[in-house]
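One such given next:

>
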Amino acid sequence: MTTITVNGKPHTVQASPDTPLLYVLRNEVLLNGPKYGCGLAQCGACMVLVGGQAMPSCVLPVSAVSGPVVTVEGLGTPDKPHPLQKAFIEEQAAQCGYCTSGMIVSAAALLQGRKQVSDAEIRAGLERNLCRCGSHMRVIAAVKKAAGGLA
């Protein structure tokens, strides 16, 4: 058994130590935000914050989790969304939505303590996140919009 903190709450999980964090989050903690995309840390659909850093949960063994985990569900609530969640909705930055939670989590890591970011910084911060729908320009607009409401 392993205990991890997810979205501010401790969870004792039964998974073996080499089980990817993604499977633990979805199957034991029962969160839907992180998605299985490629299983190779190449698409970003499974991104979570671990100790404030964006990490691909599909390749991170649960035994290697060294800090608190935050998923997109832990950033905000339907009644009080995180500025990024609100901006993604307002800018219509999602089409199919499969990549959205990973994009938001990666953007949250990028914006920690910052009120301004350039397009180039956003592109670099989200380079591990793929969107097949092509909503990239709206994603950039949403991240820039949210940056002013953070920090």
Remarks:
- The chain has two domains: 2-71, 75-147.
- Residues 8 and 68 are 7 Å apart (CA to CA).
- The mean pLDDT is 95.
- The beta strands are 2-6, 9-13, 47-50, 53-56, 69-70.
